Each structure stands twice: as structure tokens, then as C-alpha cells.
């Protein structure tokens, strides 16, 4: 079975160096070192942009932001980038970029997470580290009204702390899917905002191939198919900063193998409390669309790894419309909307004649997908 | 628990939890809302013209029966001025078609519509039972799907009808969107979401069977609501899956859709919406107008399937085959064994040649023109099948290729099939075991 490193499955030596193989990767037996090189190469190949620039002075090096979730992918990315910088340093006495690491705590700032970040800093001491609670999104996003206007009780919001604002927003949402969706959107917004304020020129996300495929189908299922060209491709994002996905050619299961085969220090940094989508709740009430897609691709990558890569490759071919006026963006997810198609009404599939169009006036408008998650925003409250 | 009143009329007791949005409705309001939405789809997309003759592709299954019933109701209620007839295709599957055709015959009487039944034997000289005898159960859906697509057009042409409506519902469309994403097939993704497709005429003959418009008025209707509608209207339909249809690639997308619907009822509609939006982002697609321009109707799929319940399901094994092929491509790319040959690079090579060999430029120019055609990725050039005259992107249409194989008196198998039918062939391959793998691949939430 591909990606498994059980000894019984591998009789052949490493196909690249004839040493003893420890893992079969995409039907190729590899030894420990060649597998590590395989993962490194896949990631570094994506970072051409961040080669050592000999004409720049050391303080002119681009700063990149690495959002760390302490999951397998982002932790491995940090590990690989750290190695890469050390290699650059030893070869040229310079580095191509500097790293800021950001850890976001979901609802409350957890002392345990500060400890975990401290461990990471100890392991990779050459970088800058920060951690923020998610509710800082209400504090940091400059155009704060656009996010604050989504709060259920606009009257009281001035009195509420940012943490209370976040809690009240999340608890006003109709389903587990909506809560997960809004939380992840806010996490992205906060990450982008922090990156801008820290003067980073790019954000290097840890997403694996598998994760990007999940995201493709999950965003499709949440009605955000329109935003896919910006959601999974490398380059300028509509949020005014570059997005890169250096792990886009590595499968999640390969990253898991990498962690398991690496020095134990690396594995000890990983913290995935809800790891394994297979354990996801069986009750549909608590299951989210993201969970479903995670489960789905976990099983697909087992037998059909190339199909997973193909989903990502194909989606990357979707082209952003040329005539996109960037002024028209969703107030929540910031994705550009064409033709003012905000909200869930006014298209072929919205069939109730006489349904009131969105009440949202002014500059705050939600895209189709975000309206599904915050239905009460901009429309009359529903009974459900 | 106190009975809740209907969310729409507020008088009757709510008996129905609407699958689409979980609103609580009474029977009358549900039926009226269901019909109104289809009316809305029809008017918003300007599907019909006054006085148009419409053939309803009728299988006797729930979708086409509900379609016929609703169209009859709306045609009378809103005075569309349509001439509605039923067109059934008899694939020649004993025990499945016999009974469902009886249903269609009863429907024709109940709705007072003319009915035409066309048999595969009549059109192709083969019934599906005979095909299965010849090729086995594996891959027979390819034959059925390819034959059916043409059969409806041929039947319509025979009746002088230019517009066929089919019972494809929102679940079918959503499923196809996810399936095409999984298969990485962007051109098809951009076509399957359009509500109207057509096989534009390649000949000037007005009786030609290649100028038939297709539309799906139930595109936004949930399968569950179609069943509810049929139930509450006491419609007479036949509910057995085709005895030959195997679980397949599409099954994986189908299971995903069912699970999505359970988690968020609007998800089916949301996938359809995403599909429509993505169609506009496919490079080189005709969908820039969102399918709204009537002059720019996407070309229908020649091989678009459609087995009543199994609606367009492709045959098992395609996922495994694709995996193998992709893996090989990746290996080739990794080893730099594969070089993309484009017209440009060839031209360059030729120019290079020219300098080396000092050949006459003119001669070279001719050579280039002759030998190299630029690679077309998205646009198919539609022509006519040289055997039957049906619209085809190849010299011989798929139905004729399949027929040729059948008529040779032996099953088509993967080694013998030529380049043209690669697409079909892909679906043919694969062991039955793959269907099981696919089953496991889908999410077990039941």
C-alpha cells in the first residue's frame, strides 16, 4: 500500500540509492534519506521566488509569514524551511528570506498553546514567533466595521470585548458547518492582517495536496466555487498579499510518514487534538462539510493518490475573470464577486418568486457562500 | 407536541418537512411551491417558445413522470401554448423496460399526450439484452448511454420535434459537478451545468437529427422533493433501478452529495451554484455569459449518458484506470521523459532544421502546415459521422464505433479499440472489484 512503511511490504532496496528502503512512495521504494529529500525537494521547488538575492542587503530580505497550526503539515513546513535557510546560510552565508511564525488560538488564549509555541521556538530559534487569539481579528482588521457589522447585536457591540464579540458571532450561527466555516474565514483574515502589519510579502501556507483537494470540494459544496481560482493557487491573492502553498505537491499521508520517520523532536511538536477525520462525529448535527471532505479525501488518497493531485492541478487551471473589479468583495471572506452577485438570491436556483432581495445596504455585502453561513445577516431572520 | 402550522399558508397543519430548506409545509403548499419553482426556472431561462412542440424523454421513472405531470399542469395553468408529447426509448431490457414502458403507456393516457416508443433494435439492430449477451455486464452502460443519447435525438427528428426535455434533477447536476472535479474534466464541468444544451446542426437538412435542443427543467429540483411530489400527487411511476447498472465512479460523487445534503440541506443547490460559477472560469469555455445568452448554447455531450435512475452513471473502473494513467504521467514528468510537443516548439525545431539543412523556406512552410495541427484542449471541432451523419467530434461517431464492434460479432476490448474511442474505452476497462473499492471510498455515514 503506498505511503505505508511497514517492513513486510518492502522487499526492494531504495530505487534511488540502493540503500535499505523504509517506505513506498507513489510505488517507488525509498530509503530514509531519499524520502526526506523527496519531501524537501517538493517543497523547495515551490520556493524559487525566495532564492538568495545577492544584490540585496541582509535587511532587505523578504519576510514571509508562516501560519502555524501545529498540525503535521505546517509543522513540517517550518521544519523544511528552517533546514532550507540553514542550507542557504552555509552555502552563501546569506538567506533568501526571513520567517515570522504566527499561531492563532481559537476562542480563548490557552496557556498550553503558549507552551507549545515555546517548544517550537526552542527547536527553531532563528525565527520570529507571535501568537494571537482569534478575536483579535475584530481589533486588527482596520476596516473593522465590515466584520463587526456581522455581529448579531449591533447595539451592544461597543460594550463587548473582542472576545465576547467573537463568541456572540459564533453562537449566532445556525450549524456546525457554518461555525467551522466562519472560524476558518476569520482565521485567514487575521493571518492576512497580521502579515500585512508585520510587513511580510507572502504567506506560506502549510496545505498539503490532500488539504487543497479537500478545500476545493468543500468550497464547492459551500457555494464558493467562484472563489476557487484565488483559494488554492500560488501568487497574488485578492487580500493584497501573496499566498504560497509549498506543500502542494506532497500528500497528507506522506507528511505523516515524514513526521514519523524524522527525529522524535519534530513529532513531539505536532499537536493535532482532533486528528483523524475518521473519528469525526457520526451525528450529522455536529459534522461539518469540511469534516466530510476530510474523511472523503483521506480514503481517496489511500488508493488513488494521483487523483487527489489531479483535482488540485485541474482546479488550478480555473482562470480568474479578467474583468474583475476588485472593489466588489465579500465583507467576510474578501473574495471578489463579479456582477454584484451578492447573497443567495437572484440566480436561477433561487426560485421563490417574491422573496425579498438582500436587505444589506451600504458597503457590507456577503458572497453566496458566506450568506449560507450567516443567513441572518442582511435578510429577515428565518424561523429555523 | 403541538402540530405546527404550515409556514406558508399558516392555516393547514404542516405535514411535510421540505427537503430543500427544512421548512414545514402542508401538502397543498408544498405542491404549489414545487410547481411554482419549476415555472420560475422555465420563465427565467426562457426554456420554451409559444407553440413549440416538446418531446418529454419519458422512462416511466419518477423524474420523467413528475416532469410530464408538472409540465402538463404548468402548460395549462400559465398557458405556455406548448404541444407536449412523450418519447420513450426501449433499450430492450426484459423485466426492466417492459414494466416501465407499461407505466409510460398509462401516463400517456392519464396526461392525454401522444407517445412514441423507439426501440434500440429498430435503431441499431441490437437490444441491450443482446448487447449484454455479446459484451457481458461489464461496460454495457457505455453502449446504453451512447445509444440513448442519439436515440432521443433520432426519435425527436422522426417526430419533427426540435426540443427534448429530460428529467435530470439538482442531485444529478450536483453529482456531475463533483464527479467532473474529481475527474479533473473542466470542459465537461462547464457544459454539464447549463440548463440548455444542443446538438447544433452540421447539415442543412431540416429533418436532420443533429439540430435538437435539450433542456432540464428540473435542474434545480431536489430528488427527494420529486419523490414527495410524485407521492402526494399519486403519480403512477415505476421505481426499479436498471438491472444492469453497476455501482461506479459516479457512485462516489453520489454518496458525497447524499452526505452533504444530510449535513446542510442547501448543499445540493450550493454545489449547482458553484458549478455554474466555475463554468465561467473554465478557460476557453462558452460560458462567459453564464449560459444566459441563447445564441451561445453549449454543445451537448455526444456520449452523455442517462439511465433513468442511474442517470449518466459511468462504468466502474474509470477511477482506477485514471489513477494508473495519472501516476504514469507523473513518473514520466519526474523523469523528464515527457516533452510537451506544441506547434510552437515544432515550428522552432523546423526553423532550426531549416538553418541546418539550408532548405528552401517555402517548402518548409508547407511542411509545417501539413504536418502539424495545433493542440486543441478545450474546443472540440464538431463534424458529422461519416456512417450515420450524426453530430460527432470524430470521423465516426461513438455509436457507430460501438456498433461496428458489436457487428463484428465479438466484444470490443481494450487492446483492439483505436485511438478515437479512448474516452469510451476508459470506462469499459477495470475489474468489478473496483466498484467495491469505490463503495468503500465513499463516506459511510448511513
From TrEMBL, chain A:
Gene3D superfamilies: HUPs. SUPFAM superfamilies: Adenine nucleotide alpha hydrolases-like. GO terms for cellular component: cytosol. GO terms for molecular function: nucleotidyltransferase activity; sulfurtransferase activity; tRNA binding. The keyword Cell wall biogenesis/degradation does not apply. It is found in: Cytoplasm. Keywords: Cytoplasm, tRNA processing. The keyword Secreted does not apply. Its main location: cytoplasm. Pathway: tRNA modification; 5-methoxycarbonylmethyl-2-thiouridine-tRNA biosynthesis. GO terms for biological process: protein urmylation; tRNA wobble position uridine thiolation. Plays a central role in 2-thiolation of mcm(5)S(2)U at tRNA wobble positions of tRNA(Lys), tRNA(Glu) and tRNA(Gln). May act by forming a heterodimer with NCS6 that ligates sulfur from thiocarboxylated URM1 onto the uridine of tRNAs at wobble position. Prior mcm(5) tRNA modification by the elongator complex is required for 2-thiolation. May also be involved in protein urmylation. Belongs to the CTU2/NCS2 family. HAMAP family: CTU2. This is Cytoplasmic tRNA 2-thiolation protein 2.
Automatic annotation (TrEMBL), chain B:
GO terms for biological process: protein urmylation; tRNA wobble position uridine thiolation. It comes from the Eukaryota. CDD domains: CTU1-like. The keyword tRNA-binding applies. The keyword RNA-binding applies. Pathway: tRNA modification; 5-methoxycarbonylmethyl-2-thiouridine-tRNA biosynthesis. Residues 53-241 form the tRNA(Ile)-lysidine/2-thiocytidine synthase N-terminal domain. It is an enzyme of class 2 (transferase). Belongs to the TtcA family. CTU1/NCS6/ATPBD3 subfamily. Plays a central role in 2-thiolation of mcm(5)S(2)U at tRNA wobble positions of tRNA(Lys), tRNA(Glu) and tRNA(Gln). Directly binds tRNAs and probably acts by catalyzing adenylation of tRNAs, an intermediate required for 2-thiolation. It is unclear whether it acts as a sulfurtransferase that transfers sulfur from thiocarboxylated URM1 onto the uridine of tRNAs at wobble position. Prior mcm(5) tRNA modification by the elongator complex is required for 2-thiolation. May also be involved in protein urmylation. Residues 366-375 have a biased composition (Basic residues). Pfam families: ATP_bind_3 (PF01171), zn-ribbon_14 (PF16503). Its EC number is 2.7.7.-. Keywords: Cytoplasm, Hydrolase, RNA-binding, Transferase, tRNA processing, tRNA-binding. This is Cytoplasmic tRNA 2-thiolation protein 1. GO terms for molecular function: hydrolase activity; nucleotidyltransferase activity; tRNA binding.
